[in-house]
Amino acid sequence: MTVAVPGMDLASLVADATAAGLTVATAESLTAGLLAATLVEVPGASGMLNGGVIAYQNEVKVRALGVSAELLAERGAVDAQVACAMALGACHVVGARVGLSTTGVAGPEPHQGKAVGHVFIGVAIDGEVQAYEYHFGGDRTMIRQQAVDEALALLQQVVAAAREQKL
Question: How many alpha carbons fall within 13 Å on the CB side of residue 83?
């Protein structure tokens, strides 16, 4: 069963990423593996997805992804800098050019002073990284799905830029 992402052809995204020579890693807290699972629903995803880390707890962010414990203590897990560190850490751990990270609050209660629906997605490519901030609505399932959809949309932008550079 392929998960439908509104307005996106996941098979084309996977094929385009593979053709562009992009390898992808995920570092998922908020989405707990849903992003990687969505990508692997597409036959041929092994051509671009190297792997991922589910780092739901901060200790895993530190040990597996190399996120600074001091950063987590100072800023909390729901933070742009943390999302960036997670994306870079994922690239390093699995040897990928592109890293996607998700961190945020799915609810039902606020967490560490952050409102339900407050999400950061980190995108790293070839050592450069940027984080994007979102405020999603809905229940836990809806917030997590919106984060996956946005992460895939960001990946689509990275893939399009990589394909343009190859031309």
Answer: 25
CA distance 36 to 52: 7
User: What's residue 4's pLDDT?
Assistant: 55
Give the residue-averaged pLDDT of 8-30.
97
Give percent of the chain with pLDDT exceeding 90.
92
- Using the predicted structure, report yes or no on whether residue 92 has a pLDDT greater than 60: yes
User: Could you give the CA distance from residue 4 to residue 60 in angstroms, rounded to a whole number?
Assistant: 30
63's tokens: 């040990």
User: Residue 131 in contact with residue 81, Cβ under 8 Å?
Assistant: yes
Fold exhibited by the domain 31-160: Maf protein (3.90.950)
User: Residue 150 is encoded by which pair of tokens?
Assistant: 């946005």
Note the pTM of the prediction, 2 decimals: 0.95
Query: What residue type is 97 in one-letter code?
Result: R
7 sits in the region (left: phi over 0; alpha: psi -120 to 50; else beta) called left
Q: Are 107 and 150 in contact (CB under 8 A)?
A: no
| In the chain, domain spans | 31-160
CA distance 151 to 88: 15
